[in-house]
Amino acid sequence: MIVFENVTKHYSKGKTGLPALKNINLNVGANEFVILVGSSGAGKSTLLKMITREEKPDKGKIIVGGINYDDLKSRHIPFLRRKLGVVFQDFKLLPKRTVFENIAFAMEIAGMTNSEIKAAVPKAIELVGLVGKENSFPSQLSGGERQRVSIARAVVRQPKILIADEPTGNLDEQHKWEIVRLLEKINACGTNVLLITHDMEIVKKLKRRVVIINGGQIVYDKKTASVTMPPQKPVGRK
Amino acid sequence: MNRPQQQPSGHNPAEFARKSISEIADMIHRGDKPQPLTSDGELFIGDMPEKNPILMERVLSTEVKRGHKVNNPIKTAQDLHIKAKQLSKRTLKALTKHQPRKIITAARIHKYGLINFTRNAWLSVASIAIMIITLLIMSVTVLATQIANDTLETIKSQVDMSIYLKQDISNQDINEILADLKKLPSVKSFKYTSPTEARENYIRENLNNSDAMLAINEADNMFPGIINIQVVDINNTLELENFVRNNYTAASNLDTARLPSFASDRRSAIDKIASTANMIKGAGLVAGIVFMVIAVLMIFNTIRMAIFSRQDEIYMMGLIGASKAFIRGPFIIEAAIAGLIAAIISGFILLFALPKALPAMIQYDITAQPIFDWLGAHLALSLGGLYLAGIVLGALSSWMATRKYLK
């Protein structure tokens, strides 16, 4: 589903500093649940931005859902993004739209009919346990609730790929596990889940494939129960 | 429900999909026969949402469920690359084939424009207030320019050239001069006052002035015949001058005591009026343009600030996959609504205020009546123009302001 081949990305213009990503080789199969671990600045978010095509690689090949990103033109990008479900770390909800509208928005932009939206959105709301909050605005919700709206919006289009960027970052213990269980549920329904986190507890408990990224490189890629973070490599200019 | 078919071990599709292309190529070289590349590419294709049951009802991946025939089995790494390329192109094509229906999108753009307008109430009110002021400035500028021009025309038309003729001029000569005068293109109109008429006019004006009446009764009629001429352009009197100098009948009948006005000291007064009128006209035009530009910039800036505060929204919509039109549309509708409302309110203000200003202007000898008459006769047109200006200015500003965030 997601293939990275020798992907390298520099942010600094002169390409002299350390790369944000260096020779990334990653192959995520269909219906897989992959946990991407790394401390901040390791390159996790850059990897995510590569998949959503916010950033282009300097070098290397990215194939997602069979689409070689070298073939992508800017007019294709909205269509590509409609096929991806992304849960953003900072939710990225529309402040002036209600919970229902925020979730429906994902379907509306794909041109789905009102009846389709009326059928799918309540189910997504139910899935994330926000029944009764449909008409609330994001500002009226707690952090955990906003996170769940973000998840509902990501899954309502039934994407083949769900990428969750630190979805538990600002949640308490109870809500954290709720979200994790939700992601597992979504994965069980046939969606490829890429969970980005730095929460080692989740990593240990889930026993899924773990990819550890550090200093822009993949340093570990295995299904494991006992992962320890490697000592962090220096990041940034030397 | 399609369950994945059982695959021989070692050819497990999930495992296969995890391999990189070079690994697969290696497999091919080793003689292993990999699964046809149904995995990555076609997943999006069969996955158009309308064909899918709801998420919770879906059970497993569709990766293997179509065990369809492969026409060109992959034998070499080259085959694999070609296949991958085809797959990518085909998937992209399939992906973009399902364009959202335009009518639904348009309806939603309008809906959200309206919703945004009401939910951003304060922002909307602020924009409308600024737009009212700007539209008023623009309307008043247009009106003032027109009124100034009309007033100048009035003043200029009141300036006439006088040719004084001998008192004993014959009727035949007069008619000849008038007929020739009529042929001059630079002459707009003229009026001849005979010496007798001039005397009668004088008597009529001075009935109460006993000294004047006494004097006029004592003396012979000393009034000259006068031709009052209005020229098309008071700056261009050359033709008239030449006529007076060169036309034999005219030249021979000129009153020797009184020079024609373009030749006397009235000449400098006429020139002064003409140059002042031109200067006012030019200044009015420049001021009008400056005010217009300021007004447009004010509207543009207001809309730009309103959109600036919502650039995150624009960015988010793009990340979720909204097309440019879908992102920009509601902003344009929102600004157009604000523009229309501002135009309607400005229209009311003008309808209320202008008639009150008219008498005052007339009192100061300002020629405001013609433009007011025109506005009264074309009320629908002028109000429509105002509304259109509001809508276009709002929409255009919004379009330009969002462009920056929609790269």
Give a written overview of the molecule.
The complex is a heterodimer of chains A (238) and B (407). Chain A is globular and about 50 Å long. Helix content of chain A is 32%, strand content 24%. By secondary structure, chain A is an alpha/beta fold. In chain A, strand 4 and strand 5 form a beta hairpin. In chain A, the strands form 2 sheets. In chain A, strands 6-7-8-3-9-10 form a 6-stranded mixed beta sheet, with helices on both faces. In chain A, strands 2-1-4-5 form a 4-stranded antiparallel beta sheet, covered by helices on one side. Chain B has 407 residues and is mostly helical. In chain B, 67% of the residues lie in helices and 5% in strands. Chain B has a 3-stranded antiparallel beta sheet with strand order 1-3-2. In chain B, helix 2 crosses helix 4, helix 5 crosses helix 14 and helix 14 packs across helix 16. The longest helix of chain B is centred in the last third of the chain and has 43 residues. Chain B is elongated, with a radius of gyration of 42 Å. The two termini of chain B are 43 Å apart. The chains are: A alpha/beta (238), B mainly alpha (407). At the A-B interface, strand 2, strand 5, helix 2, helix 3 and helix 4 of A face helix 1, helix 3, helix 4, helix 5 and helix 13 of B.
